Amino acid sequence: MTRRRNRRAAVKATVATDARFEHELEVFRTEAETAAQFFYGYLAIQAAAGAENSIYRLLNTAPLFWNTILGALQTAAFVALGRIFDQDSAHNVGRLLRLAEDNPQLFSKAALAKRKQGADKGPPKWLNDYLRDAYEPKPPDFRRLRGYVSKQRKIYLNKYQPLRHQVFAHRGLSHATDISALFAKTNIREMQRMLTFLMSFYEAIWQLFVNGHRPVLRPGRYSVARMRERVAKNVKGRSAHERLVHEAERFLQAASDKQASDPSIKPVASRQA
């Protein structure tokens, strides 16, 4: 009786850990995509206005509004980035990775089989063949992933956390020269790569957990210019930040075309977007 009770308790604990990890993984996905969407929204508007005079003129019909939008997107991106990397955040990338490292049974073939079977009474016919090729991670896999995360977190701490804490989330600095000095340390391409890394990291962990695939970090598209070229060819990207660039480009182009045909909509000469 005691042995059976212990077995039931172990099963309940495994189910609870499985659910907790799945929840943390989903929270991480939303945080990573949110940060990318805010920042790429900011970049997409800037890029479109810089490349197309018609869009530039459109934004200058409501410059205060569009400058407010750009500022809000930039602020939201930095705040979201802090929730991902700051260790005192309730749901951060370190917490997710630690939960995975501390519970390797989550990625066993037995656990994967239960997830694939789902609510069915019996395992599907293809399951045994599927499990034969499933990957069970080893400690070096998690150490490798932690190394990648540590590298990105170090970049965040050195260059982006000061801006997040002293400018965007809290007004620690008020002098323009001090703020400019912090911005001078940053690099747009570096931040783009950081954001696409986070989405690649999510994809690698999700594939391991859901499909039993070896966790491989695959490079993602980060260039807004390349994404805009794909929009011109009517090709949509799969990732959230690519879809956002596509939507922003299409919307701004359509709106600028409408403005061009409506002489009552005029730029505000004293303001710039």
Structure in words:
It is a single chain. The protein has 273 residues and is an all-alpha fold. It has one domain. The protein has helices at 2-51, 53-59, 63-85, 93-102, 109-117, 127-132, 139-168, 176-184, 188-211, 224-232, 240-260. The longest helix is centred in the N-terminal third of the chain and has 50 residues, at 2-51.
Concise description?
The chain has 273 residues and is mostly helical. The chain is 73% helix and 0% strand.
What topology emerges from the helices and strands here?
Elements: H1 2-51, H2 53-59, H3 63-85, H4 93-102, H5 109-117, H6 127-132, H7 139-168, H8 176-184, H9 188-211, H10 224-232, H11 240-260
Helix pairs in contact: 1-2, 1-3, 1-4, 1-9, 1-11, 2-11, 3-7, 4-7, 10-11
Mean pLDDT, to the nearest integer, reads 87
DSSP strand count = 0
**Termini distance?**
73 Å
- Indicate the overall shape: globular
Question: Which parts are unreliable, with pLDDT below 50 for 5 consecutive residues or more?
Answer: none
Supply Rg: 23 Å
Tally of structural domains: 1
